[in-house]
Fold this sequence. Notes:
The structure holds 2 protein chains of 2 kinds.
Chain A: H1 3-17, H2 30-35, H3 40-72, H4 78-100, H5 102-108, H6 111-115, H7 119-134, H8 140-168, H9 180-195, H10 200-205
Chain B: H1 2-28, H2 35-43, H3 56-65, H4 78-89, E1 99-103, H5 124-127, H6 146-150, E2 156-159, E3 162-165, H7 175-179, E4 185-189, E5 194-196, H8 204-210, H9 220-224, E6 230-233, E7 236-239, H10 249-253, E8 259-261
Antiparallel strand pairs in B: 1-4, 2-3, 5-8, 6-7
Helix pairs in contact in B: 2-3
Amino acid sequence: MNAETIKSLVSIFLAAILTENYILNKFLGICPFLGVSKKLNTAVGMSVAVTAVMVISTAVTWPIYTYILTPAGLTYLQTIVFILIIAALVQLIEIILRKFIPSLYNALGIYLPLITTNCAVLGVTMLVIEKGAADPTFGYVQALVNAFGSGIGFLVAMVLFAGVRERLEFCDIPKSLRGLPITLVAASLVAVSFLGFSGLVDGLLGA
Amino acid sequence: MNEILFAVLIVAGIGLIAGIGLAVASIVFAVPKDEKAEKITEMLPGANCGACGYSGCSGYAAALSKGEAKPGLCAPGGAETAQEISAFLGIASSSMEKKVAMVRCMGSYDVTSDKMEYQGIHSCSAAALLAGGVTSCQFGCMGLGDCARVCPYGAIEVCNGMARVDPKRCRACSLCVAACPKGLITLVPYKKQAVVRCSNCEKGAATMKVCKIGCIGCKKCEKTCPQQAIHVENFHAVVDPEKCIGCGACAEACPRHCISMTEDMV
């Protein structure tokens, strides 16, 4: 692996976190973003689970797409097949966790099954394939790095927003805005702040 | 036609492989369940009240099956459940006296008055923060129903500004005991006995001003009781249920009619 590849991997990783953040730039996975970000520790738990599922799903769906669906000319089945695989994988991870790391299983609790229907996971698996089709240098390793970066981006967004929400608890909010409305306003402000990162990664690495 | 068939076969094949994989994984990675604990969980009432000190019925069942806990801690299940579990575990059953919750106040709207027009949160614990509560008697039941809301069995109802426990429905889980901000509710043995339904800790003259039937600590009951089971403490009478034989002499002697017998209580 030469320096150029490493540089491109770092660039993909940073871009996935900052400029292509799945929650704050692509607006995928808003449900857990609003639902599970009330407390910092649950937000971290959910994000770690999402990151793991994103990487593992991409690791499985990429070869299936490249070596089964593309040669058979069935790329239009991508969505259905990916949902199937992600659901099965999440179940498998749940079974394995319950057996070997019961404490983590109990800590994640409801979040694991929730991830089954998380559109951010589906989004990652489908968008890396789009990227792979557009850029011939974007291969399996790049896809995995992108998936991992997306998961970390999810974590960053969740943790940041959990902090914002914990402070919102103590604010004197107008009655009509209490609850979800002010949460959405705060979420859009955080998203706007992430807009400031656009162009940052390219500028940093001079790519 | 062939194309559709091919697509269906591919997706079905992927689904089949995933399904078989999951089935195999669920067998290979099966977690052995504690069957003993599960059977005990079925015997428990399932109220998850936490009166036993464990996290819900399944937590208590797990502790029981490991031998870490004794049967008989389950207040809602009572003696029957304790015996059933003891028989199942093959250990000596510990005796378990049936108890019921009792509100030690009869301050209905007829005998006390409200000292303010309370418009805050409909909750005793909130109202209790305001100048000692809504009712004229600062020790008395405010009738806002915190106890009735926590009761999992619907055994408490608030009527005419005071809470009343239905002893037939009460399973003595003691959730209401913790919920009452005035500490008016206690558990008493389920038998015929005298209960002083007043908790006012002020001197007689002060009590008379706020409540028509509040205990003034006159000690007539103390003198009447053949068993010395009733004593005035903190300016109101308190019955020792262990000594009380339920003769009813104190209830007859009480000039304020705040002592009642458990048999004729609603």
